From TrEMBL:
<comment type="similarity">
    <text>Belongs to the RNR ribonuclease family. RNase R subfamily.</text>
</comment>
<dbReference type="Pfam" id="PF00773">
    <property type="entry name" value="RNB"/>
</dbReference>
<dbReference type="GO" id="GO:0006402">
    <property type="term" value="P:mRNA catabolic process"/>
</dbReference>
<keyword id="KW-0540">Nuclease</keyword>
<dbReference type="InterPro" id="IPR004476">
    <property type="entry name" value="RNase_II/RNase_R"/>
</dbReference>
<comment type="function">
    <text>3'-5' exoribonuclease that releases 5'-nucleoside monophosphates and is involved in maturation of structured RNAs.</text>
</comment>
<feature type="domain" description="S1 motif">
    <location>
        <begin position="615"/>
        <end position="696"/>
    </location>
</feature>
<dbReference type="Pfam" id="PF17876">
    <property type="entry name" value="CSD2"/>
</dbReference>
<keyword id="KW-0269">Exonuclease</keyword>
<dbReference type="InterPro" id="IPR050180">
    <property type="entry name" value="RNR_Ribonuclease"/>
</dbReference>
<protein>
    <recommendedName>
        <fullName>Ribonuclease R</fullName>
        <ecNumber>3.1.13.1</ecNumber>
    </recommendedName>
</protein>
<keyword id="KW-0378">Hydrolase</keyword>
<keyword id="KW-0694">RNA-binding</keyword>
<dbReference type="Pfam" id="PF00575">
    <property type="entry name" value="S1"/>
</dbReference>
<dbReference type="InterPro" id="IPR011805">
    <property type="entry name" value="RNase_R"/>
</dbReference>
<dbReference type="InterPro" id="IPR040476">
    <property type="entry name" value="CSD2"/>
</dbReference>
<dbReference type="GO" id="GO:0008859">
    <property type="term" value="F:exoribonuclease II activity"/>
</dbReference>
Amino acid sequence: MVKQLPSLSELREWMTANPEATGREIARAFGIKGAAKIDLKAMLRELEGEGIAPRRRAVGGALPPVTVLEVLGPDADGDLFARPIEWRGQGAAPRVILLAPKDLGAGDRVLAKCEAMRGPDYDYQAKVIRKIGANPQRILGLFRKGTEGGRVMPIDKGADRDWMVAPHDVNGAQDGELVLAEPMGRARFGPPRAHVVERLGDPTAPKAVSLIAIHQHGIRDAFDDAVVAEADSAQPLPLGKRLDLREMALMTIDPWDARDHDDALYAERRGDGFTLWVAIADVAAYVRPGSELDREARKRGNSTYFPDRVVPMLPDTLSGDLCSLHEGVDRPCLALEMQIDAEGNKTGHRFHRAMMRSAASLTYEQAQAADEGRLDAQTEPLADSLADLFACYRALSRARARRQPLDIDLPERQIVLSDEGRVSSVAFKERFDAHRLVEECMVLANVAAAETLREKGRPLLYRVHEEPSPDKLEGLRQVARETGLVLAKGQVLHTRHLNRLLAQAEGTEFDEMINMATLRSMTQAYYAPQNFGHFGLALREYAHFTSPIRRYADLIVHRALIAAHGWGDDGLSAWDVEHLEETAKAISEAERRSMTAERDTNDRYLAAYLAERVGAEFAGRISGVARFGVFVKLDETGADGLVPIRSIGAEYFRHDPEAQSLTGERTGATIQIGQRVLVKLAEAEPMTGGLMLELLEVEGESLPVARGGPSRGGPKRKAVKAKRKATKLARKSRRKG
C-alpha cells in the first residue's frame, strides 16, 4: 500500500538514523511510488540545504549529452529505465529514466538527449530523440480542417499533393495551423494518408520560422532510411594500429550548448617552446567514399544552424554520439603534433591516426575563468595543462601579429529563445581569449594540413579567399575619404594596409562604419582544388581540416591525409579525385544556401520580436545607402531595417553609389554610411523579416527643411521635361530645314 508522504521532520529523523540510505531505499521505506517520488525528491532537496542528503551511487565520469541507450524495461511503478551502451567511468553505469517514452520495450536501443538529474533511483533523465533503426519521414504543412478530419498542404515548393488526415489522426490541430505529420501509407483508393504528430501553431509564430526557411531554401532536413540504417549500424572502433593518446589530457572547448565536439587541444612546454596537439574527430572512419552516408553528406555540404535547431550534415547517431569527442569515452581521431617556438612559429609538425579520450568538455567561459585563476571542480585537475595551453596561445598571438590577418571587429549577435520558441532577448556574444585560443589552434592545424598534402603531391580542397575587386576597393577608399581617413592607392594590397585603416578608425566615431565598410568590400570565400591563397588570413595556403562533423570539405581533406599516409582503405577514392571540381562547386553553393537561410531566419525572429514595438524609437547606424533608401542597423538588437527614400525629408536626394551617400538637392544635407541616426519603427513583418523605419535624426540633428516647400523629385522632373521640349523643337527645326 502506498503511504502518505512523511512530514519533513519524520524524513529528517529517519535519514539521521540511516545516513547510508540511498534515495531508492528511502522511497521504499516510506512506501512511496510513482508520481509521489517527485514530491519526495523536492523534500530531499530541501533537506540537502541542512547537510542531510541520501547516499549517491558512485558514478565516475559523465554521460555525453547525446548518447545511445539500451532500454531495460519498466519497474514496478511503470517507470521506464535504460543504461548507456558505452560506459567507461568508475563504478556501475548510471541509471537513466526515460521521459515520455513511446512504444519502447526491454532491449530496444534509442538515441537520447541526456541531462544529469539525480532522483531517488536514477542519475539521469533522457528525452528520446528516436528509436535506433526507425526513421519516420515528416511532412511540414498547413492543416486545413474538413467535414471529416482534414488535410495537410505541404509547404515544400515541389510538393504536388495534399495528405488526408482522418478525424482520429488530427491530434487537435486547428484550421490554418502549421503542423508536422507522418505518412501512414497510401490508401487503396484516394490520396495518401498521414497523421499529425506535432502542432506548431501559427505559421507566423517564431517557432515556425526556421522550419519555413529550411523548406524555402531547400535545406535537406530528413535522412533517407538507407542513410539512417547505415549510421545506426556503426559501432565504436577498437584501438587497432592507432596511436594511443587516451592518457593525454586532451580537452574540448566549445559553446555551452554544443551538441557535437569536433576538436580537442593539449599543449605542454618544451624548453622555450611548446608541443601543441590538435585532435580532430575521425569522421572518415565512419563515412566511407561511395557509401549512402557519403552521398548524403556531399549533398548537404555542411550543417545548418538556427536559433532553435540544427540541421546536421550527418545523422545524429554519428554527429551527436560516435564521432563526437565527448568527455570520458574513447573516440578515433586524426591528431596533429606541432612544435611551436617561443615566438609562436610552427617549426615542425606530424599527423597521426589515433585514439583519444577527452579529459574534459569545457565551455569557453570555464576555460576563460581558469586562465584568470578561477578554477572549478572540472578545471582544477587540468590547471597545469590549461596554463600551458594559454601560454602557447600567447606565443601564437605574437606570430599572428607579425602576419597581420584582417582584423575586423564587429559584434556578433545571439538570439535567445524561450521554451515556447519566442525571442526572449538579443545579446551580443562576448569574445574571450578562450575563443581566440581555439581559433588560432584551428588556423594552424588547417595550414599544416594544406602544407602536408601539397608536399606529398596529393589533391585536396583549398579554402580560398581572394583579394577585394578594384571597384569595391575604390568604394572603401571613398568611404575612408569622407571620414578624413586614408587607404593608400597605387600599391599591391595587403591585409596590413586595411588593418592600418581600421587602426586609424579605432576609438573614433567612425570605428564601426569603417569596420562595416571593410567587411562589405571583401569577396566571399569558397572551396577549390586549386590554391589561390587566403587573403583575409594572410596565408599562402589554407584548407579546412578541423570540423569534419559539420563540413564536407574537411572530410575530403581527412581522406586525402589518410591516403597520403597509407593509413587505410578509407582515404580519398578515385571518384573523389575525379569529381573534386564538382564537389568544390556543390559545397560552396550549399554553404551560401545555408548562410542565406540562417540570415533570413534571424531576420524573421527579430521582426517577430520587434513587432510589438511598432512606433518605438531606436538608435542605430546607417549600414548601407541605395538609390531606393537607407539601411539602418539598430544598436539594441543588431536588426537591419530600411528607410524608404520617399519618406526622407521634403526634397530630392541625389545618390552617389561610390561614396554610399545621399545629398539633398536644395539643403545640401548629406546622409551617408556610418552616420548615427534615430529612427522610428514603422512596420515589422515577421513572415518576410522586413523592418520599415522612419528617419527622425541624423547625427543628433533633424533633417533641414528645404526652402520653397516640398519638392519631392521636382528639380529632376523639370529637367526631364525641359530636355524633352528641347528635343521636340530640334526635330521640328530639322523638318523645316
